[in-house]
Structure formats: C-alpha cells, structure tokens
Amino acid sequence: MKLHRLAVSGFGPYAAREEVDFDLLGADGLFLLHGDTGAGKTTLLDAVAFALFGKVPGARGDVKRLRCDYADRDTPTYVELELTVRGRRFRLKRSPEYERPKKRGDGATRQQAQVSLTWVGGWTGEGHSRIDDVAREVEGLLGMTAEQFFQVVLLPQGEFARFLRAETAEREKLLEKLFGTERFLDVEKWFRERRAERRRELARLGQAHRDLVQRVAEVALEDPPEGGGDQEWLSSLLKRLDEAEREADQAAAQASDRRAGAEAAWQEARARHERVRRVREARRNLDRYAEVEPSLRAWVAERDAARQAAVVVPAQERAVKLERELDAAVAHEQAAAAAVAALGYRGTDLRGDGERLREEAGGLTSLAADAERQRADQRRIAQLDRDVATTSQRLAALVTQLDEVPSKLAAARTAVEESAEAAARLPQVSGLAAAAAELPRVERAFRDADEARRDAVDAQQAAREALLRIRRERLDGMAVELAERLRPGDACPVCGSAEHPSPAQPVLNAVTAADEDRAAEDDQVALDRRQRAEQEAHRLAERLALLREQLGDRPPAELEREHRSVAAQAERWEARQHELAELEEKVQRALDQRGALERELAEAGAQRAQLVEAVEERGARLEEARGDFPDVVTRRAHLSDLADALTALATRRTAVVEHGERLADHRLEVARLAAAQGFADVADALAAARPAAAVAELEIRIREVEKTRTAAESTLAELPDTDPDTEVDVAGAEERFRAASAHATDAATALTNARTRAARAADLAERLRTAWLRLEPVEAEFAELDALTDVINGQGQNAKSMTLRTYVLAARLEEVAVAASARLERMSQGRYRFVHSVEAGPRGTRGGLGLDVMDDYSGQQRPAKTLSGGESFLASLALALGLADVVAAGAVLDTLFIDEGFGTLDAETLELVMTTLDELRAGGRVVGLVSHVEEMRQRIPTRLRVRKARGGSSLELTA
C-alpha cells in the first residue's frame, strides 16, 4: 500500500480544504509531521483511516464527531485519499454523517454519510458508491481489517507501550483482533457444548438406569441395592418373585373351595327362612280380611251408585250454566234500554229508527272532516303567529352579533401573525438564551482549567529539571557502574584491558539506573498531565470565545426575558390559529343562519295568509250544518251513538228469549236421565254422585282387599308342609360365608399382586438389561470426550494450562517476539531482546502469552514493566514493527506512520532509532513520523508543519 495524496475539508481542526502530497513529502523515504499540541497532527492519520474504513482508531472513534466546529456553513466535510494497492491505483472520497446549518432560516439539517471509490489506474472496472461495496473492496485489497490496519500501518502513541505492560487477558484481546482466532474459539465452544450434550445424555441414561433399578426394587417390595445392582441381584429377585407366585396360587385355590361351601349353606338357610316368613304373612292377611269384610260390602254399594249418578251430573251442570247465561242476557237487555232512554229516544221501531239515524249521520261525514280540518287550520295559524315572533327576535339578535364580527376577526388575525413570527424567531432566541446560561459556567471552568494548566506546566518543568539533573549525576558516576560490572580476566568495555588495577570505588548516595527510570516516569506522567491540561484549557477558551461572539453586548437577563416572551407567544400559535378558524367558522354559520331565518319569515307570512282565507270560507258551511249542537262533529257523533244503541237493544231482547227456551228444554232432559239411571228424582241422583278421585279411591281399596285375600290363600296352598313356628339361623350362615369370602378375596388379591409383581418385574428386568447395554458405550465415549475437552480448554492433562485459542495466539506471539527481538537488539546495541513465556501466571492465570525482556548486561530475564521510559519506547517500537511484519505476512506496506514517543530518548538512543527507521525505508518504503520534538526537526529535512489557529488548523510543507 502506497499513499499518494490526502485532502481534508471541514474535518477535525481543519476548517477549510487542506492537501498533503505524499509523493512529494515522502520522496526521501522519511518525513516528519510536527506542530503544537492539539494542532491536528494525529487527525491526518485519522483522516487516512477514515477514508479507508469509515472510522478512526482508538477512543477518538467512539465520539463520532468529525466535523470541524469552525467550518463555514457552506464548507462540506469530507476526506479524499488517493493510493495504490497491489498495482491498482484508486481514489476514495468519504463524508461522515453530520449536522450542517440550514441554507434558509435557522436550525440544522442532517447530512448522511457518503462514500465513493474511483479507479485511477491498473484496473478498468467500475467504481463503487455504496458503503458496503467500498468496505468489501478495500478490505479485499488490503487483506487487513480496520483493527489490523490501525496496528500495523498507524502505530499510535501509547498503544504498544500499554500492550507491552498489559496483563494476559488484555493482551489476549488485542491478539485475537489482529490474528482472527475466532474459529479456534468456536472449536473450544463446540467441544464444550458437545461435552455438555453428552453429559446430559449420560445423566439422562444414568437416571433412567437408576429409575429402573428403583422401580424393580419397588415392584419386589425390597430396598434398592447399593451401587445400582447387577445381573446376579436381578436373577435372585426374579426367582423369589416366581416362588411367591406359586405359593399364592395354592392358597387362593383352597380359600375358593371353602367359600363355595359356605355360600351353599347360606343360600339354603335363606330359602327356608323365606318360606317360613311367607306362611306367617299369609295367615296374618287372612285374619285382617275377616275383620274388614262388612265394610267391603258398603264400599261396593257406594261405588256402584256413584257410577250410575255420573251420567246425570254433567247434564245438571249444563243446566246451571244456562241459568247463569239467561241472567246475564237479561242484565244486558236492561242496560241497553237505559242507554237508549238516556239518548232521548221515544219510539218503538228499534231497528227501523236505527237504520234511518245511521243514514242521516253518514250524510254529515264530509262536513265532519271539514270541521276537523277547520280546527287544525286555526291551530296552525296560531302556531305561525308564534313562530314569526320567535324568528323575528332571533334575527334581530343575530344581526346585532354580526355587527361586532369585523373587529374580532382583525384582532384574531393579528394575534396569529404575532405567534407565527415568534415561532420563527424561537430557535434563534433559544440558542442565545442557552448560550447566556452556559457562559458563566464556561467562564468558571476556563479559569479552573487555566489554573490547572499553569500548575501542570510548573510541575512538568520541575520534573524535567529533576530528570536532567539525575542524568547528569548518573553520567558523572558512570565509572562506578562500569567498575561494578568488571570481573577478573574479562575485558573492560572502555579500554579493553583484562587487568583492572584501580577501578572506581562506590560513593555514598550515588544515582542509579533505577533512580533515572523513576525520574523519567515522573517526567512522562507530568508531561501527559500537562498535555491534557493544555488541551482542556484550549477547548474551553475556544468555547468561551464562541459564546461571547454569539452574545455580543446584550445582557443575559435581557436575553432571558426575550426568550420567555417569544416562547410564550410561540406556544400560543396553534391555539390562536385554532381560535381564528373557529371564529371564521362561527361567522360563516351566523351568515348562513341569517339567510335561513329571513327565508323562514317570508314562507310563514305567505302560508298564514292562505290559511286565513280558507278558514273564513269553510266556517259559513259548518255553521249551517251543526243545528242545535255545538258543531257538526258533535251532531254526527250523537246520531251514530243513538243508531248503535237502538240496534244493540233489539239484539239483547232477542237473546233473552232464546236463552229462556234453551233452559226449559235442558231441564226436561236432566229429569229423563235421572229416571233412566234408577233414581227417584234429580236430587237423589246428585246425592249419590261422588268425585272421580273418591270413586277411584273406593275402587283401589276394594281391589287391594280382594288381592290380599287371594295371595294369602295361594301361599298357604303352595306351602302346605311349612311350619310357621320354625326358627332358621340365617345370620350365622351369612357370617360364616362372609368370613370365607373375605379370606378367599384376600387370597385372590395376593395371587393377583404376586402375578403382577412377577410380570412387571420381568418386563422391567428386560428394560434394565437393555439400559445396561446402552449405558456402557456412552460412559466410555463421554470419558474420552471429557478428557479431550479439558485438554483443548487448558485443563486436565494439559500441562501448560493453555486453551487451543491461547496456544495459537502464543505461537503467533512467539513469531512477533522473534521479529521484534531482531529490531530491539539493534536499537539497544545488543542489550535487550524479547522472550516469549508459556508459563502460567500467579493465582492460576492462564499461560502462553507472557512477554518479558532479556537484559544481556545482567544476564537476567525481567518483566517489560521494569524498562525505563526511553527503553519502553524502543521496546514498544520494536514490538509494533515486529507485529506489523507478522500481521502483514507478505503484504507490501509502502507507507508507515509512527506517532510520538521520541521525546523520551537520549541522543545516542535516538540515533539508533533513526538508523532503524532508515532501514525501514529501504526498498521504496515511506515512513512518516509524528512528533513535536525539536531535535527531530533538525534530523529530518522534509516535514509537514501543522499550524494551529483559532479559525482552524493549516498545513505547511518545508524542506
């Protein structure tokens, strides 16, 4: 991968478009990117990463805020990168998602993320504009994911120092991302899941086996054996059950024979007892018959007389009914005569006069309808007078209301316009009010941050002075350190002599390498604190300036009052619009109602005039036809009522005559029926009559007495030899049968239970033997799988306590350690090299990912955490370069960036690092260094300076 050109616009601290020509910048193979802290050096590396993968490395990628706060509203935010990968040259242009100000009015519009890939050379295919397509194309060409690219191309500040000092778990996470060992994690998971599945199956089969043993023991009424039982136990149990079944069968047969004999004796005793009881009962019934025989003859005579009188009773009831009907007809005739007299009739021809009066009433029918219509029209005229008065009042009130409408409409429209204007101004006023509220807090925060920055600067300067002082003192006492390493017969590293006549002697309170390391660490901590404090103070200063520029000279209280006023007006906008719409609708309804009322008045007046004319013309005819009555309807009703009363009286008189004739005829028929049944008169027949229920009761009483006598005589004839005084012991025979039956039932139940137990045990025994056959191979298979799973997951027989995934990562880490050691030995002049450790850590920590350093000066292996600041940088750089070599695995990385860390090196070590970097650029590779160290500017002639300004950073190429 070789970078050619980079352009950024509105990105990070770059407010305008800035370009970097990597072909020109990296012509010498090594260039420097420098500038003030916070000016945007690292942002250029972020831009390269964002162009390729759509995200930036480290914690900066979590913020997802890439647009420059100082960019003009019309300046777009994008990154454009032109590069060559595997002989294909292409251009990437990518824009993040961000909020840009609206072109009209206030507020912001969301700008969606966009990307395009255009081929420049080495390939003739079509470009891409979809984010997914570009991502697949870039990863396919580079052969690396975003995380791998960030580690092997962009060597970020502090990342590998943390990796060097990291614990096993943290180091493992990073290596997993770089080397993609997820498939080995899947293998471990597959084995664990497979073992869990087999364990569940084994547990299920084992539980089924134990359940079968338990059930067999329960069927045999025995306790289950310890250890799960075996074939010998099962055979012995089945044999005991067979013997118990045979014994129960013999006992059941004997008990059944005894029960049969007892049952026969009991049935014979019951039969004898029943014969004696029947003879005794028959004798008692004959004695009772002799006592009731006189009453029986009277019951028979009463029953026969009641049956003969039953023919006369219905006829007599019909005669009584006819008498009641005649009385009712007479009463109706008298009432009809009184009604005719009340109507003033004095004639004798009832039917003739009735027909004449009905014809006269019929002649008045048409005039009666006119009279009814006359009354309805008069009521309608009165109602129209009332309606006209009411409508006139409503119309006058409505006209008065409409006179006030124009002023109300004007006021409502004015209020809506005021609220609309306030709603349009509200976002701007709200922003100013929020800025006014934020200003005091930002001022306080800036004062605190500026004070913290000054403290941090003082502390860092003090730490740097202490470091320089300690280094001078150590250099002054370096002869003592060298003398301590001298051994008789070994060459002196300074003069080369094997003799050491007067080595330097130790002095009190001499400065050691450990003192220098601690001072370097203190200096680095103070420097980090200073940088953070300066960045925070710079951020707050920019925010404070922006707030003051937004507010101008307007007091915060005035802005707050204006915001409350405008917000109140804006909140009422919809309500006022609704009120205006309701008022306009109300006015329209009032206008429609006024037209309707005016039409009602006109229609009511015309209708009343027509009705008055018709009423006057009809009234003359009705006055002539009413006669002596109040009106025609009353006269017609009188004639109709009198005609109906005359007809009814004639009908009632005819009915009275007919009812009298029928009653006389029926009385003669009743007397004839009484004589025919043998009674002297009707009164005798009615005295002999009885209700049907009484006759039925007499019949039942007679039949029961005769039935009892006949049954008693039949029983005595059937059992002539039975002595009624004989006593039979039925209870004793039954008791003996019950005891024998219970014993036989118990014996049969015992036999059934024995057979059931034997059959059930045989069935369960067969199932148990099958379960034994299934369980044995599963146990063997699980034991093998369990041991293998433990080994793969770093347990059991795994002596190194390394999982499969850790083992693979350890192998890759060993490759990284070998590659990094070659570079570290050159940069440390043969003193240090990396040592990969597979030993388990303390407190059971997983092994395989240990990384220490071997110090050839002391011959001791020690943790990387013990390295000084400069040594840590050398080790981190060597590790990063070694990791890049391993991860790239043959991919040509023509461009490489190294971010910061050179400030911790002394002149000699820096020279070694520069020599190593010179080796990196061999073969056309370009190495970019990101640093603000002044000495780097002197060593590297070609550099890109980032100038920091309030309105956005800018780039300057120098050589």
UniProtKB/TrEMBL annotation:
Q: What is this protein called?
A: Nuclease SbcCD subunit C
The Gene Ontology terms for molecular function here are: ATP hydrolysis activity; exonuclease activity
Share what the entry says about its subunit structure, partners included.
Heterodimer of SbcC and SbcD.
* TM regions (residue ranges): none
Q: What are the UniProt keywords, alphabetically?
A: Coiled coil, Exonuclease, Hydrolase, Nuclease
Coiled-coil blocks: 442-469, 530-614
Q: Which domain of life is it from?
A: Bacteria
Domain Rad50/SbcC-type AAA as annotated: residue spans? 5-182
Q: Which family does the entry's similarity section mention?
A: Belongs to the SMC family. SbcC subfamily.
State whether keyword Cytoplasm applies: no
The answer, when asked if Translocase is one of the entry's keywords, is no
Pfam families linked to this entry: AAA_23, SbcC_Walker_B
Listed GO biological process terms: double-strand break repair
Q: Please tell me the species this chain comes from.
A: Saccharothrix saharensis
